[in-house]
Amino acid sequence: MGIVADDITGAGDIGGLLAGHGYAVRILSQGADWEGLCARLAQERTDALIIDTDSRFLPPDAARERVERATRALMATGCGAYWKKTCSVFRGNVGAEFDAMLGTLGENFGVAVAAFPKNGRTTLHGDHFVRGVPLPDTEFGQDPVHPRREVNLVRDLGTQTPHRVINLPIETVREGVRAVRTRREELEREGVRYVLADAETQSDLRVLAEALSGERVFLGSSGLAEELPAVWPPVEPFDPLSGARWTHPRQVVMIAGSVMPQSRAQVEHYAARGGTVHELDVDLALRDPERASRLLADLALGTLHTHDTVLLRSPNSPEQVEAAREVGAALGLHGIEVSQRVSGVLAEAARITACEAGTQKLVALGGDTSAALTRALGVTHTVVVQELAPGLPSTYAPDEGLLLVLKSGSFGPPDFLALAIDHLQRAHGEQA
């Protein structure tokens, strides 16, 4: 299977679900030689190949071009099926990227599923909910950079594509597999391009997985990926950490740049249990990023002399975020540029720390922060190790010898960092 994801945490999200069924899942980073890596990795055990286009918040035309290129690279490997992976609340260039994949593949029809019940995402009559709350009334509706104000995903997608978009209602889903297949075929004959399917439970996803198991193209969040392997042929077990060697097996460096309340709670949980947290000077980061990275790295290195773990964070209360935007505006930086500058400084501080301390195990909280970390570390591709919580896997970068946990800002329980640290410290491998 070839998958195109619009950010690095989304790539890991779907990859972790597939790896949980024994799949060998490999992720290619944005900026890497996708064509060359696809050709190389196709010669190794690869059940799912994922390309991160990091295109969620690009202009639509730029996002479309990246998805077209990624799809062509995957086609060259002879993939039997394709997936355009989106955010579970449809942030980003969803319509442009769906159109790009289908157009490149020469397909005219696709069923999209945004629901991911295990992470609280459900869809009913096209309206999308997060933990039972209508999307615009959640933290995503209040996002200071990319607010989601439309509750209905059919209407939302319809504004992003010239093609027809229709809802597959929950009533049809609950009639069962045959009803879904019959309605799917009717809508394709009618010239509908996209069908947005409702789902509120894992049972709903199971029906959709069985009904759609033979599709060439899948669209939407990763929720369906947990159910599809059960209706596909089984695969042999795979060891993603074969050959791994650790110099400091217990040492973990973490960075948190997400403004989501889930990430804030995770940082607070870590700190409340004695974890050392160093906060980035955002004003300095915006004015002198190189100096800010160095100072933060020095704090982290000092901590690692006496502790196994350390966390570097950006201030993330609403008041602090607004203050950072005001400083950025005075420097001529827009909202997304402020976010990217902060993420970049955190990532560079982590890179300096890892290089000077010999750390091979790192955690990033937030999609932008995770992307910045992989760029700073020069990671071109990873293999998915295992899922630690719904939608939250670890990945191993074999060329660099790094074990990473790259976490979506809005996913995970409050104790997730404790889970991640325990997993990273216990990861099997030889002592270097």
From TrEMBL:
It comes from the Bacteria. Residues 1-228 form the Four-carbon acid sugar kinase N-terminal domain. Keywords: ATP-binding, Carbohydrate metabolism, Kinase, Nucleotide-binding, Transferase. This is Type III effector Hrp-dependent outers domain protein. It comes from Deinococcus aerius. Belongs to the four-carbon acid sugar kinase family. The keyword Nucleotide-binding applies. SUPFAM superfamilies: YgbK-like (SSF142764).
